[in-house]
């Protein structure tokens, strides 16, 4: 976590096992690691804005929904 002025940046790493429905995807049993960067802007002591950049593509590849680069679906 880094804070400067009115902004705070946070890096998250989530780890887990896909054991139930997630985004309409039935459980796969796959282990998943997902990273995200959040930037928060505060104004007058309150949260004013929030941006996030997540690795959704990497997560979908780990769940087997999208093939990794260089691997054809043939």
Give a written overview of the molecule.
The chain is mostly beta strands. The chain has one domain (2-62): Nuclear Transport Factor 2, Chain: A (Roll), CATH 3.10.450.50. It has one helix spanning 56-62; strands at residues 2-4, 7-17, 31-43, 46-54. A four-stranded antiparallel beta sheet has the order 1-2-3-4. The longest helix has 7 residues, at 56-62. The mean pLDDT is 92.
Uncertain residue ranges: none
- DSSP helical segment count: 1
Shape: elongated
Assign the CATH architecture: Roll
Q: Order of helices and strands, N to C? A: EEEEH
Largest sheet data: 4 strands, antiparallel
Computed structural class: mainly beta
Structural domain tally: 1
Question: Which range does the strand content fall in?
Answer: over 45%
- Percent of residues in helices comes to under 10%
Mean pLDDT: 92
**Separation of termini?**
43 Å
What's the quick description here?
The chain has one domain: Roll (Nuclear Transport Factor 2, Chain: A), CATH 3.10.450. Helix content is 9%, strand content 49%.
